[in-house]
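Late entry, evening session. Most of the bench is empty. Finally got around to the prediction I had been postponing all week. Sequence below, unchanged from the version circulated by S.P.
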Amino acid sequence: MSRARTWRSNTVGPRIKSIGATSAASAAKAATTTIPIVFLTGADPVESGLVASLARPGGNLTGINILTIELTAKRLELLRELVPAATRVAVLVNPAGPAPETMLRDLEAAARAMGLQVQVLNAGTSQEINAAFASFVRERPDALFVGPDPFFVSRRVQLVHLASRHAVPAAYTQRDYADAGGLMSYGSNLMDAFRQVGVYTGRILKGAKPTDLPVVQASKFELVINHETARMLGLTVSDKLLATAYEVIE
């Protein structure tokens, strides 16, 4: 999601940049005030300074918010449903990632409401991920919440492997983790979000201005449960969760 691609129409027209990840979109905004930019972000685009408002973005940017940060509390709630006996949850955070303060604020508020204790572990490199998991031997949390971050997505095989090695149930932000063997993921339907990026790109190529295209808020969400991983962890997935899941990986 951190790569940027530039499309050119076959006729004379505007260049358009389609940008994934908030940091990349911010960098693109700083680089140009004329080239239209269509972003895909998981953080609040107003709070992060990408647009003036959702309805009237202003400037040369518009795009799609997949609500990754906003889904924090729901993701923790689903993890608790999968691991009802959990009382202590470790949270893996990249301090340089998208809106870590906002995510932690929402998560800690949700944890308090559920009576959960939270331990924050920071990691911004592969080595720091290993170090964070090494602390599990000492602390033995009941579950793990992996924060939203493009770097973590790129290290999903490492994260899923370590969670399996330490037998810790973990919740993730998108289905790539569950496909790799992670216990569960909950997030926006990325294929639908990418489709919307294409729709906006096409409209701009036909003459629309980013400032006239409201930021789209994702509306399709998917819970993916890896049932095989749940069985390996000795967890019983309730019929309610199985019925709620967008997909159950057997």
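Two things to note before I forget:
The first strand starts at residue 4 and ends at 7.
Residues 72-187+222-249 form a domain with the Rossmann fold fold (CATH 3.40.50.2300).
Will write this up properly tomorrow.
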